[in-house]
Specification:
By secondary structure, the chain is mostly helical. Helices cover 79% and strands 0% of the residues. It has one domain: Growth Hormone, Chain: A, CATH 1.20.1250. Helix 2 packs across helix 3 and helix 4 packs across helix 5. The longest helix has 33 residues. The mean pLDDT is 83.
Amino acid sequence: MTRLRRSLRASVVDGAACAAMTGFGELYFPAFGLLLGASPFQVGLLTTVPILCGSAAQLLAPRAAHRMGDKRFVVLAAVAQALLFAAIGWLALATAGDRYAALLVGVALYWGLALGINPVWNAWMGRMVPPVARSRFFGRRAAAVNAALLGSTLLGGALLHAAAGSDWGAASGFVAVFALAGLSRLVSARFLAVQHDPRHGPPPPRPHLLAVVRGLRGRPYGRLIALLVLMMGAVHISAAYFPPYMLQRLGLSYAEYTILNAAVLLSRIASSAYWGEVARRHGNRRALQVAGTLLVPLAGLWAISDQFLYLVALQVLAGFAWAGFELATVLTLFDATRDEERAGALSLYTLLNGVAIVVGSLLGGSILRWLGSAGYPAIFLLSTSLRGVILASLARGVGVRRDGEHRFRRVFVEVISFGRAS
C-alpha cells in the first residue's frame, strides 16, 4: 500500500509537470504559427493535421510497449518529447527555409509521441489505480494538472507579452517558453520513472486491431468511441480557428489571449474535484452525458458578442464543461474496456479521433476560405448544431449503466446548480 501511495503521489507530480509542458508549449503552437506568417487556414492545419499523423503513428505504440514494457516505453517517449522542444524553439531564431513546414513536421512528431504515450499510459494506470479509488484520485489529479496548466499558461503569456514589447521581439519569448516546456517534460519523465507497474509476469497478448474494430458493435466501448469521435469532429469545425479569430479577427493582445485561455483553466481547477464527486455519486456515464450537454451551445455562443468580459464568462463556462467531459471520458473508457483490450481500444479511438478532428477542421477551414471573416459565425453555429445532433443520437446508450442510477434530468439540474442531490 505504501508503494501504491508513493506511485500515486508521483503520478500527481508527473501530471502537473506534463501540464506545464502543455501550458508553455502546446497551447502556443497556433500563436507561434501566426508569428511565422501562417494564414488562419494554415493555423487550422497546424492544429489538426499533426494530430492525425500522430494518431496513425501511435498504432505502433502498443506493439513497442509490449516488447519494451509499458513503463519504459512511456518514460523514453516522454524524454524524446522534451528534447523535441529544442528543435521547435530553434525555429524562432532561424532565418532560412520554410519555417512553417518545419513547424508542421515538429508538431506532428510531438503529437506522435503524445498520442503514442496515451493508450499505453492509460493501460498502465488502469492496473495501478484500484477501481474503487479512480474517480476520486483522477478528480484530484486533474485539479493539480489544471493548476499547473494555469500557472504555466499565465507565465508563458507574460513572457510572450513582455518579449513582444522589448528590443528582443516576440521570437525570443517563444524560445523561452519552449525551453520551459522541454524542462517541464523532463521533470515529468523523472516522476514517471519512479512509479511502479503492478503487472506480474509477461504481459498478456493484446488483441489485433481488427479484433478491436470487430468489437465496436458488441463491446461497451463501441458506442462510446462513436460518440467521442463524432463529438470531437463537430468541436473542431470551430475549435481549430479560435486562435486566429482571437488574435487576428478580434485583434487581441497576447495578454488578452492568455487571459481567455487562463479563464478556461481556472474554471477547470475549480470544478475538477466536483466532477469527480459527480462521477462517484451518479456514475461515469451520467457525468459524461451531462458534461456533453453543456458542451453543445459553447461554440454558438461565440457568435453572440465579442465583448471581452462576455468572452471571459463564456470561457469560464467552457472550462467547467470540458473538465467534466474529459474526466468522464477517461473514467468511462476504463469502465467500458477490459485490461487486455484497453490499449488496443484506445489506439483505435485515437486514430478515429484524429481523422474526425482533421475532417472537422477542413470543413471549418473551407467555410472560412469561402466566406472570409464572415465565416466565423457560420462555423460556430454549425459546430453547435452538429454537437447537439450527435449527443441526442448517441449519448443515451453510452457507457456502462450503474445500478440505482438517477435520471439524467435530476443529475443535470444538480450540476448546473453546482449542488448535490439528496
